[in-house]
Amino acid sequence: MQGSAGELADLLARTAMRDRAAFKLLYTRTSAKLFGVALRILKDRSEAEEALQEVYVKIWQRADRYQAGGFSPISWLVAIARNHALDVLRARKPVADDLDAALDLADAGPNPEQATVRSGERARIEACLDQLDTDRADAVRGAYLDGYSYEELASRHSVPLNTMRTWLRRSLLKLRECLSA
Amino acid sequence: MSAETIGSGGEDGDAIRIGEYALGLLPAQEAAALARQIAEEPALAAELRFWQSRLSDLDEEFAEVSPPAAVLPAIEKRLFGSAEARGGLWESLGFWRGLAAAGVAVAVLSLGAHMLRPVPVDPDAFAVQLVAALNAQEGSGVQFVALFDAETGNVRITSLSGEPVPDRDFELWYIEAGSDPVSMGVVPLDARTEIPLGPADRARLTPGTVLAITLEPQGGSPTGDPTGPVVAAGPATPI
Prior knowledge:
heterodimer, A: mainly alpha, Rna Polymerase Sigma Factor, Chain: A, Arc Repressor Mutant, subunit A, 10 helices, 75% helix, B: alpha+beta, Immunoglobulin-like, 9-stranded antiparallel β-sheet, 8 helices, 9 strands, 32% helix, 24% strand, elongated, disordered N terminus
């Protein structure tokens, strides 16, 4: 269960002051979300568990860098988890894509309950993604949510690498206009 | 590489390239070079914040998955050495809160009246007096009785049974339902201790507030929160 933004900000502040009980509570409140991030990107349970450990070590060490007023606490924490998972993913030796594992997780979207509490902000990026062709919106999502590289995106969408780059860059330009409007 | 886009892009090129960076699509070397550039150019940093904040609205799509129970102890071991591995249930804040919320069954009546003496009896005083029998938990054999007199603002705590533990101290806490434990200091065995409380603490010691004793490193918890096992606990009851 995630805590409120206020509670998480408080726990982060206390963690920055080396309060172990607060850190433990922060873990209790946020680890399921961050594990979900690591699992979705790494698609491997034991790698995701190892990544989660490293992510919380970083959180303990960097909690003082969280500044209220920028990102919500959970966005900041998700960004740490996502960036770490991407680092692990990119450092991996190229292995045959584990499609079975990928399929297990491919549809791990929000459950119906979560879906009903989607925020207005979320609706906004959804609306902007909806303005793109489905393929291209999926490529943006795949890059953000699954951490796919250009190469993976190209092979998943069965298009040449340069085509994928062009798709994505054009999509980003359109997204930026839409999101800035 | 993407030099053609980067070189010719101007404002849009920067926006796209930072969007790619935020998505994690740039090759490592290019990403590192861009990170240095972002650190130096506020306009680029603003562009990155734009992308990060807008993209983070997709975070809801990351489904929550409970990690295995072994992960947290492994993290604590990496950060704090093995110290935090001890304790388990007793360290969990949930336990403390449950304790305070449930109101542990009290055995005040079983305490002989002599244990409560000397109670400052003043028939004219309407000030609240609370007593808490801190019963042994998990076979610790440690028992205390605490008396709080709202008029003097003192908590008097007396040990009834229990053996000292080498290199450890007993620390007294009060826990309001839904709040973190608050330390009232280290308490000795074989002695009666008077603990003066400040106005804020006095106001929070009310019927139902749980008093508890934990086993802590010498001198008390190093963190300000309980770190050791609960050896005795009981709720405050008006007398």
